[in-house]
Amino acid sequence: MRISTLQAFNNGVAGIQRNYSNATRTQEQISTGNRILTPADDPVASVRLLQLEQQQNVLSQYNSNLTAAKNSLTQEEVTLNSVNTVLQRVRELAVQAGNGALDPQDRKSIAAELGEREDELLSLMNTRNARGEYLFSGFQGKTPPFVLEGDKYIYKGDEGQRKLQVASSLTIPISDNGKSIFESVTNAGRLDSNIVAQPPASTLSVSAPLVSDETAFASDPGFPSQGIEIQFAADGSSYSIYQLPRTDDGAGNFNDTALPGYSNLSIDDDASSSDLLVFRGVTLHLDGTAQGGERVQLTAPVEPRNKQGILDTIANLRSALESPANGNTGVRDAVAVALTNLDHGMVSVDQARGNIGARLNVIETTQTDNEDVALVNKGVQAELRELDYAEALSRLSMQTVVLEAAQQSYVKIAGLSLFNAMR
């Protein structure tokens, strides 16, 4: 086979360039520490590395969301702790106000502190986060959740709950709306009492009904949905309880049967003391002296008031202490309702705090899981991308020897020429 001088030169140069390129590439791998410099080096590993980097970016976003969720829930928890502290102080003031030995001036002093606590609680319920959004407004972050209109506190937010995705299939709430925590509180004073029949000589008066036991009120048999009627015997010393509506013979004579276990119950005829009636979770005070024939009905109002906000509970108590409607009995009734409603409110706040604690625990475990996945991810990336230095150095040494041999052989072959033999 004939080999021209040009062909010999081209082959020599191509071999040197190829060997030089291999040595240079190995040196670049050593300097960067990466085995894969371009996707062509290992297409399969390159695709896998791209997937792992995408997963790592998603995990980084999840970690950012976890941090934001933790900060939001921590602020909400701190705020609710402060709310609970204020409610405990308000409850102490309510208990103090129930002391029958206090004079009107003492009660006004208590009412003054209740007013300050009411303002403090309003400020806490309208707390903003670091972004300037209200914590308890639901989705209406720019709207103050609670506003005083007239003598009532109105909730201006919505019932939304902001959420963040913290894992591929896990979304966690990072806020709670104020209506669910502070407004949807069971109202113990949701029933009305009304004396529908009373002889002229009777001094009987009744307090506002108090739902003191929610379990007994709602259990079977619970408090009748249409209410009850208390009818006093002719001698005024005993009474029976009937379920509404009652049936009569058309002449005003009732022919229905008293509820079992609640008939011919005796009462104290001392007008200076109060008799306590407890019926299926409802507490009622009977004051004065009954003459006989009195009928008292306990019913739900036409416009239900099953729920009452915490701020309204405090405001109602403050108003009752400032100007009691029925003297000591009015204060007694207002304090009883306020204490029960405050207890319900603190239960609602504690439930919200418990939910926040559960979410914070989920965030903590999710952060740990994400860190573990990220660590495994980085390990796989290192295994695919990073260079084996011992192998690379050995390969570079071999490539250097080959390059030097190619260079030396090229010099010798380049010196071979027919003209040199003809000199």
TrEMBL record:
Q: Which Gene3D superfamilies match?
A: f41 fragment of flagellin, N-terminal domain (1.20.1330.10)
**Assigned GO CC terms:** bacterial-type flagellum hook; extracellular region
BP terms from Gene Ontology: bacterial-type flagellum-dependent cell motility
Ordered alphabetically, the record's keywords are:
Bacterial flagellum, Cell projection, Cilium, Flagellum, Secreted
Using the record's annotation, list all stretches that form the Flagellin N-terminal domain: 3-139
| Segment forming the signal sequence | none
- GO molecular function annotations of the record: structural molecule activity
Under the heading InterPro entries, the entry gives: Flagell_FlgL, Flagellin, Flagellin_N
Give compartment(s).
Bacterial flagellum; Secreted
Pfam families referenced in this protein's UniProt entry, alphabetically: Flagellin_N
> What is the similarity comment for this entry?
Belongs to the bacterial flagellin family.
Q: What is this protein called?
A: Flagellar hook-associated protein 3 FlgL
Q: Which organism is it from?
A: Stutzerimonas xanthomarina DSM 18231
